[in-house]
């Protein structure tokens, strides 16, 4: 046990670690304190970055999280707009599931999350809607269903599917839609949220993906199929930490996202 930890236990008046024959084990008090300490360190990191950016707003850094609904059009366009006006701002993009990005956001490791807005809104966050997006069944242009005038759900489930993970709201909605029609997600499936992975699988296989419609927009190698998947659809927007002051770089990215979303909304 280091002197620093001993002094900390003395200040708190409770044991943070227990010493035993097998070494040191964290107590219940230690586990609780560690959670708060991590939050404080995250806030200190944010404060340090914010002070640096105030001194020179054009040289700041913004960490943005994204998932399938924001990764192919909206975010790249917004970053391009941002870099035209602030070329020295560093943009760090992290792609993960919505659930993992929420943890990163609340811990201070991500400044803003771009993608599908989850309802009800998670505690400790605020939402800003950017545009609405529909969900489409998409294949590669070579797929047997690509040239069909009409497609039914029972035709789709005869092929392998690409779907988001079971922890996502979109996956739940897909399963609910299939259940209403007496169907289930095909056993032959791939679970993926990476845009590049989904696209390449569609191009190279006979898989079907149920994904945000804009992912296939303007891509000559992908084909949205003529089938309505209502009521699946969602708002795309920003998720921010409710109690965190936005850095100048983050504010600049949000302005660019708002501008880019106006054009993307018309396309969707």
UniProtKB/TrEMBL annotation:
Domain named HTH lysR-type is located at 1-27
- Example of a GO cellular component annotation carried by this entry: cytosol
- Please state the span of the N-terminal signal peptide per the UniProt entry: none
Question: Which PANTHER family does the UniProt entry name for this protein?
Answer: HTH-TYPE TRANSCRIPTIONAL REGULATOR YBHD, NITROGEN ASSIMILATION TRANSCRIPTIONAL ACTIVATOR-RELATED
Please name the Pfam families in this protein's record: LysR_substrate (PF03466)
Keywords, ordered alphabetically: DNA-binding, Transcription, Transcription regulation
Keyword DNA-binding in the entry? The reply is yes
Output this protein's name: DNA-binding transcriptional LysR family regulator
The keyword Transcription is annotated on this UniProt entry: yes
Origin: domain of life: Bacteria
User: Its family?
Assistant: Belongs to the LysR transcriptional regulatory family.
**What molecular functions are annotated in GO for this chain?**
DNA binding; DNA-binding transcription factor activity
């Amino acid at each position: 046990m280091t002197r620093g930890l001993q002094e900390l236990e003395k200040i708190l008046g409770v044991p943070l670690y227990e010493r035993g024959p097998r070494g040191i084990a964290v107590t219940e008090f230690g586990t609780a304190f560690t959670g708060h300490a991590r939050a404080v360190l995250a806030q200190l990191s944010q404060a340090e970055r914010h002070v640096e950016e105030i001194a020179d707003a054009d040289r700041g850094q913004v960490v943005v999280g994204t998932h399938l609904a924001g990764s192919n059009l909206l975010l790249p366009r917004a970053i391009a707009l941002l870099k035209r006006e602030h070329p020295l701002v560093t943009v760090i993009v992290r792609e993960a599931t919505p659930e993992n990005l929420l943890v990163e956001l609340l811990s201070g490791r991500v400044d803003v999350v771009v993608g599908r807005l989850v309802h009800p809104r998670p505690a400790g966050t605020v939402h800003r809607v950017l545009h609405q997006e529909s969900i489409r069944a998409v294949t590669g242009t070579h797929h047997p269903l690509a040239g069909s005038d009409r497609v039914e759900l029972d035709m789709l489930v005869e092929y392998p599917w690409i779907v988001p993970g079971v922890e996502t709201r979109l996956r739940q909605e897909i399963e609910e839609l299939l259940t209403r029609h007496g169907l289930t997600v095909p056993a032959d499936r791939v679970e993926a949220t990476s845009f590049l992975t989904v696209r390449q699988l569609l191009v190279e296989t006979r898989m079907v993906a149920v994904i945000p419609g804009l992912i296939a927009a303007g891509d000559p190698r992908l084909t949205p199929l003529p089938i309505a998947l209502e009521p699946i659809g969602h708002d795309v927007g920003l998720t921010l930490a409710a109690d965190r002051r936005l850095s100048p770089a983050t504010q600049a990215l949000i302005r660019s996202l708002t501008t880019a979303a106006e054009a993307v909304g018309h396309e969707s």
